[in-house]
Amino acid sequence: MEILDILIIGGGPIGLNCALEAQKNNLTYLIIEKGTIVNSLYNYPLYMRFFSTAEKLEIDNIPFISTAPKPGRQEALEYYQGITRQRNLNINLYEKVEKVSKENEIFRIETSKGKYFSKNVIISTGFYDIPNLMNIPGENLPKVKHYYTEPYPYAQQKIVVIGSSNSAVDAALETYRKGAEVTMIIRHSEISKSVKYWVKPDIENRIAEGSIKAFFNSEMMEIKEHSVIFKDEKGKINEIENDFVLAMTGYLPDFNFLKNSGIELQGDSQNPLYNPETMETNVSNLYLAGVVCGGKDTHLWFIENSRVHAEMIMKHILSKF
Q1: How far apart are CA 281 and CA 10, in angstroms?
Q2: Are the C-beta atoms of 175 and 159 separated by less than 8 Å?
Q3: Closest by Cα among 173, 12, 164 to 80
Q4: How far apart are CA 221 and CA 262, in angstroms?
């Protein structure tokens, strides 16, 4: 029975960074990823551009060369997948981790394809897999999409975009420019302050001129086959014709997986318990890295500020040898 030094769950940028640190320190490791390399980035909108500049997306001081001030999805895929090939990282793709348990200080990791044993486990699973549901009637209709990739399927259609964050604003602007009739339903009183600074004036101007309709302080009530029902800021119930709903309501980590792995979750935000100096959770030798550390507060962590987690974890693991 082979016992790894480290098993890494999740092959995103931070999971890859953890593998690079393990490799540099001659530790045996394996990444298990349920999709492709940097699977979350692969599922981003096709034409998405990052907030961060290229150098802030770099891992292990490997240069990220970009011709644009802000790199896009395709450049990031080339960069991270290129590192995986160049450094010959040990990674199993299209394999889902189903259970993590501990037996006599050794972790047993059960997956869709087998089982593994490791002295340490790093969970770096991000948050992009579970949509933050509205829990309203009709949300499961085929016309409701919780993921947006490109505008072309929505040309000449009546689109409702729910939300006011970057993903909602991008979806609204791109579908509008492909001929969609766009209505935004927004729970807050304004477009989110976190929207990319070069995009925010665009959406606000389109709303001001009436090209894109927006209902602020409003709430979705029901989705029907050919319409949606929502309550506006005056409490009035409105029903409008609709072909597609793009529910850009955010995403959540897999809290059940974290709890079943023994990690304590705290408060309404379901923040996982971990030591911020070592990234070790309440379960000895079980670590968190990346966005998953933030619980429901998924805006707290991103590539730029969680790259340091890999080095922190490796330093703590090595101190136990």
Answers
A1: 17
A2: yes
A3: 12
A4: 36
**How many residues are present in the chain?**
321
10 Å CB burial of residue 236 (0-12, 13-18, 19+) is: exposed
Locus of tokens 């693991």: 317
pLDDT in tens, 40-96: 999 888 988 888 899 999 999 999 999 888 999 999 999 999 999 999 999 999 999
3-class SS of residue 298:
coil
Query: Cβ neighbours of residue 181 under 8 Å, at least 6 residues apart?
Result: 157, 158, 159
CA distance 169 to 254: 25
Coil, helix or strand at residue 84: helix
With a CB cutoff of 8 Å and minimum separation 6, the contacts of 284 are 105
Cα separation of 209 and 205, whole Å? 6
Which strand (E) or helix (H) includes residue 2? Answer: none
| Alpha-helical segments (H) within 33-137 | 39-42, 73-86
Please name every residue paired with 161 in a beta bridge, in sequence order, or none if there are none.
184, 246
Q: Which of 160, 191, 147, 187 is nearest to 48 (CA)?
A: 147
Name beta bridge partners: 247: 162
* Nearest Cα residue to 172 out of 194, 200, 198, 193: 200
Closest to 145 measured CA to CA, from 179, 112, 180: 180
Strand pairing class (265-266; 271-272):
antiparallel
Instruction: Say how far apart CA 162 and CA 182 lie, in whole Å.
Output: 11
pLDDT on residue 175: 98
Question: What span, in angstroms and rounded, lies between the C-alpha atoms of 312 and 290?
Answer: 12
DSSP alpha helices (H): ranges in the chain? 13-24, 39-42, 73-86, 166-176, 200-208, 255-260, 303-306, 308-319
Residue linked to tokens 């699977």? 39
pLDDT at residue 301 above 90? no
Stated as kind and residue range, the H or E segment containing 120 is strand 115-123
